[in-house]
TrEMBL record, chain A:
Record's keyword terms, sorted: ATP-binding, Nucleotide-binding, Phosphate transport, Transport
GO molecular function, one term: ATP hydrolysis activity
Name the UniProt record assigns to this protein: Phosphate transporter ATP-binding protein
Matching PROSITE patterns: ABC_TRANSPORTER_1 (PS00211), ABC_TRANSPORTER_2 (PS50893)
Species assigned in the record: Levilactobacillus hammesii DSM 16381
From TrEMBL, chain B:
Listed name of the protein: Phosphate transport system permease protein PstA
GO BP, sorted A to Z: phosphate ion transmembrane transport
Any one GO MF annotation of this record: phosphate transmembrane transporter activity
Membrane topology: Multi-pass membrane protein
UniProt similarity note: Belongs to the binding-protein-dependent transport system permease family. CysTW subfamily.
GO cellular component: plasma membrane
Species of origin: Levilactobacillus hammesii DSM 16381
UniProt keyword Secreted, yes or no: no
Entry's localization field: Cell membrane
Pfam families the record matches: BPD_transp_1
Ranges annotated as spanning the membrane: 12-35, 67-89, 101-124, 130-149, 182-203, 261-281
Length: 252, 295
């Protein structure tokens, strides 16, 4: 058995007539961080959102090809999107905490799933916030609004919120692009702490960030996957000319 | 030839002037109603029943009827409006069905209320044989209120960012859980504001009620709360003149000697109540938002 937890084969996605993904083949092994890089509009977000079926929300999207999570076809008619999204969580570019307390934000998924045991919920809140490296900053005002936090803290609370439902894969779409440098580096630290326990796939427009945190890096262009490899190979010794041009800042 | 800067100044000046004029007219109207009406107000006026021929009547029953009718109309229209708004905004795809529904709501909301009243008369009072009654009135008000309330709730849902919906779904909440557990709580303050504002409109409505809830206010026995008794305040089948209808009626056919004073007093009460609704809407909306967002 391979260690691959998520596989995509010949994935095409059309927004109406427009082909935004042109046959992507890309697999992910369990654990570790993969960064998706590439010029703006090349389909990184689109690809990421196919992985937990967030594109279902957009009208007129057609998807062909196969995505398998632990051998199960995510787009099979019997697939349960709700279950899929519990196992494949997502963090967005703009921090989007709910307008409730920090505590409620973190346990929201669990509470709705029916968990009532106060001790268990307390424990999950602490564990998730610690994992997201924001516990020390918020532990004294768990019951205050999450909206009162700084952008960087909000984003880490959003990460904690995803961790609380214990997913196996965490998708992040430019999680630091709306944040200041200090907050960004805290998020990077958070992700580095999580890489041993979760499979992390993050889109980033920041090449330094990819080189700092990613084990593997995939380079996209014009809806195609140009190249994927160990991060250091992509940056030091890319196989494709296009990758080299992009890395060295010759376009994009 | 004016240069752009003066042009700009003139334009802004004109707009300020127009806005000022509107405010002035409004203040004058309010001022007139309150100045002529407030001196009539007393505890007696607010609680005593009306008198048909003698002076010294009050508006107690009309005031009570207005509130009772308002509450009934809201109880009927709010769940329907909420459901319709959630369907239209959160679920419905853009196709001819939803376009038709939206157009229908649009048309309903611009229907003159006297037409709603006549429809209510023909349908609820005559056809369904409900007679001139609170219930007929409440149904007519529902028709009057439903489109406005649906649109206002839809607008409240629209103010909640799509990132919130994505956040909910990405946590593995179903569509329905996302709507009821994330979107609605976040929208409650603004929905509440909309409900109270529409309550103000309903409270002041006369034309839709004249031929449905009727123009008479039978005496009520405020010790009898059995809704099946004819003099019980809760009885939904009794005719019930409201404050707004009362004002209309006094002015068109009032023969009591103090008709003018009663009309002024009633108008002042109506205006005060509606002002109160508006301020309450702002205040409660803000309070609630603070409460909900800072646990
Ligand atoms: N909802 C949508 N409808 C139509 N086209 C879209 C939509 N979202 C993205 N696109 C298009 O698909 C392409 C890929 O977009 P995206 O995945 O957002 O790129 P990236 O995240 O790499 O910047 C772009 O050309 C974009 O204009
Ligand atoms: Mg993007």
């Amino acid at each position: 058995m391979s260690k691959e937890i998520l596989t995509t084969q010949d994935l095409h996605l059309y927004y109406g007539e427009k082909e935004a993904l042109k046959g992507i083949n890309l697999n992910f092994e369990a654990k570790g961080i993969t960064a998706l890089i590439g010029p703006s509009g090349c389909g990184k977000s689109t690809y990421l959102r196919t992985l937990n079926r967030m594109n279902d929300l957009i009208p007129n999207v057609t998807i062909t090809g196969t995505i398998k999570f632990k051998g199960q076809n995510l787009y099979a008619p019997s697939a349960d999107t709700v279950q899929i999204r519990k196992e494949i969580g997502m963090v967005f570019q703009q921090p989007n905490p709910f307008p409730f307390s920090i505590y409620d934000n973190v346990i929201y998924g669990l509470r709705i799933a029916g968990e009532k045991n106060k001790e268990k919920l307390d424990a999950v809140v602490e564990k998730s916030l610690r994992q997201a490296a924001v516990w020390d900053e918020v532990k004294d005002h768990l019951h205050e609004s999450a909206l009162a936090l700084s952008g960087g803290q909000q984003q880490r609370v959003c990460i904690a919120r995803v961790l609380a439902v214990s997913p196996e894969i965490i998708l992040l779409d430019e999680p630091t692009s709306a944040l200041d440098p200090v907050s960004s580096s805290q998020i990077e630290t958070t992700l580095l702490n999580l890489r041993h326990d979760y499979t992390i796939i993050t889109v980033t427009h920041n090449l330094q960030q990819a080189s700092r945190i990613a084990d593997r890096t995939a380079f996209f262009m014009n809806g195609e996957l140009v190249e994927v490899d160990q991060t250091k190979n992509i940056f030091m010794n890319p196989a494709e000319k296009q990758t080299e041009d992009y890395i060295s800042g010759r376009f994009g | 030839m004016m240069n752009p800067k003066t042009q700009n100044k003139v334009a802004i000046g004109t707009l300020y002037g127009i806005a000022g004029l509107v405010v002035l007219i409004l203040m004058a109207l309010l001022g007139y109603i309150l100045v002529s009406g407030l001196p009539q107000l007393s505890w007696h006026f607010l609680t005593a029943p009306a008198k048909a021929f003698l002076k010294g009547g009050g508006v107690g029953i009309q005031l009570y009827n207005s509130f009772y009718l308002l509450i009934l109309a809201m109880l009927i229209s709010f769940p329907i409006a909420l459901g319709a708004a959630i369907y239209l905004y959160e679920y419905a795809k853009d196709n001819w069905v939803t376009t038709t529904i939206r157009t229908a709501i649009e048309i309903l909301s611009s229907l003159p209320s006297v037409v709603v009243g006549l429809f209510g008369f023909l349908f609820f009072v005559v056809k369904l044989n409900l007679g001139f009654s609170i219930l007929s009135g409440a149904f007519a008000l529902t028709f009057f209120n439903l489109p406005l309330l649906t649109r206002s709730i839809e607008d409240s849902l629209r103010t909640i960012d799509t990132t919130q919906r994505e956040g909910g779904l990405a946590l593995g909440l179903s569509r329905w859980e996302t709507v009821t557990r994330v979107i609605l709580p976040a929208a409650v303050p603004s929905i509440l504001t909309g409900v109270i504002l529409s309550a103000g409109r309903v409270f002041g409505e006369a034309a839709a009620l004249i031929y449905t809830a009727g123009q008479s206010a039978p005496a009520l026995d405020f010790t009898d709360w059995n809704p099946f008794n004819i003099s019980s305040p809760l009885n939904p089948m009794r005719p019930a003149e409201t404050l707004a209808v009362h004002i209309w009626k006094i002015n068109s056919e009032g023969i009591m000697p103090d008709a003018k004073a009663i009309s002024s007093g009633s108008s002042a009460v109506l205006v005060l109540a509606i002002l109160l609704f508006n301020f309450a809407a702002r205040y409660l909306g803000k309070r609630l938002y603070k409460r909900l967002t800072s646990a």
